[in-house]
Write a structure and sequence with these properties.
Layout lengths: L6 E3 L6 E3 L3 E6 L5 E4 L7 E6 L2 H9 L2 H6 L5 H11 L1
Length: 85
């Protein structure tokens, strides 16, 4: 029997992709927003492709803010841009 591959939707482009191909951004219980490289950290998560293009789209359509249910500070976007390059 084949193992099921977890799929997640990118908040930038809206495409369904394998979880391991996406970056997870979380809002921790104490409202800190960070990039979760392990994919297992505690908190509300949003997934995004590893491309600057999708980061721009997520910024424009407020996909990350909607998914995390909070306003994102500018430094979070800047940190994510550095992470993607």
């Amino acid at each position: 029997m084949q193992k099921k591959i977890p799929m997640r939707k990118c908040v930038g482009c809206g495409e369904m992709k394998e979880k391991k191909d996406l970056i997870r951004v979380i809002k921790t219980p104490d409202s800190e927003i960070m990039i979760d490289l392990s994919g297992k950290a505690n908190g509300r998560g949003a997934y995004m492709c590893r491309s600057a293009e999708c980061l721009k789209k997520a910024l424009k359509n407020k996909g990350l803010e909607r998914s995390l249910k909070s306003k994102l500070p500018q430094d979070v976007y800047e940190r994510m841009e550095k992470e993607l390059i």
